[in-house]
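New to this. Please check both lines:
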Amino acid sequence: MKNLKKFAALGLAGAMVLGMTSSAFAAGDTSDVAGSHVFMFKSVGNAFGVIMYDGFSSYMEQVGENSTEKSPAETTVAAQVQLLDEAITQGAKSISISTNGDTGFDEVFTKAQEANIPIVSVDSKASADYRITHNNQASTADIGAMQVRAAVMIALGVPFNADDKDMAASVEAALADYDGEEIKIGVLSAGIDTPVQNGWIAEMEKELSKDIYAGKVSPELDKKYGDDEATKSTQQAQAFLAEGSVDVIISPTTVGIAAAGEVLTQAGSDIKLTGLGLPSEMAPYMPASADDDEFSFVCPYMMLWDVSHLGASTAAIQMAVQNDGFDGSEGSTLTMQAWGEYEEETFTAEADEDGGTGVLTGIPYVFDKTNMAEWIDKL
């Protein structure tokens, strides 16, 4: 993960933010945001979004700019649109957003464009018609493929090997001699219309279509959706448990994987778990010592990336738009200033499959028994 080992100070600050009660974020920030850079996540109080905003606001403060988090209480497009409309009317300086859906933003994004308020999406894309660019935490293909590989390795009882950076070699070797029943994988995702998770799931299905999986791993994913709500995600995890039809659950959402971890652990289930999670939230369900038997835990290993850096790099993109004329066109570059313990970085906008562009500012990172203890208090 890019600069992950330099994350300690800011990651710890993010972890401290997680200790705040949800009531502190009750209904999203409705304060006046005139002249402020607005950051909007899918819902208020989401741990992933809290840490990302921590990085965003830290970078903005360093460069002398004001920032405001304005996230909705409900994980819906309509709730985001309402807050966006307020922010635009109040004169926000920029909008950085992780969207709750593919559609439904046209009118409010047009209003932002008419007011010359730049839109940068992060984590979950805004339409290419309206955004300057999208900040990718890692490539969609890498995230989807690596989660499938992790799920298959876990189903086969294969420990993670840090020397196999993309796990492809380990999966192929493990499957070569496998002649058991077809492995079945479930997915506990966020909303059914959430762009980022749907992109990852599409790449999971593409990975499963490869010849190495034929007859050994089902190409069909059993998909359930928890809408990034703890209660609904718990109910969907319980449905997987009741049906007993999958060997491993992939949850590409921090809310879903934590909910599934609790359900499977309490039930003493043989169903295993992997996906994208925060070490601080997944500690009860994962090994934390090199001496642990990782397969005695429901989640032997999982992935994520440097969430605070993702927020800070989003802020850097907005500053490049404001100060350096960065327009997000293919091949255009921007510089992120040295920030905290991070060195100066340069990023390049590349063509995206939706007709817009994306900036890649991170790579997937695997948390397992060799490094969990290092990260539980940081992320």
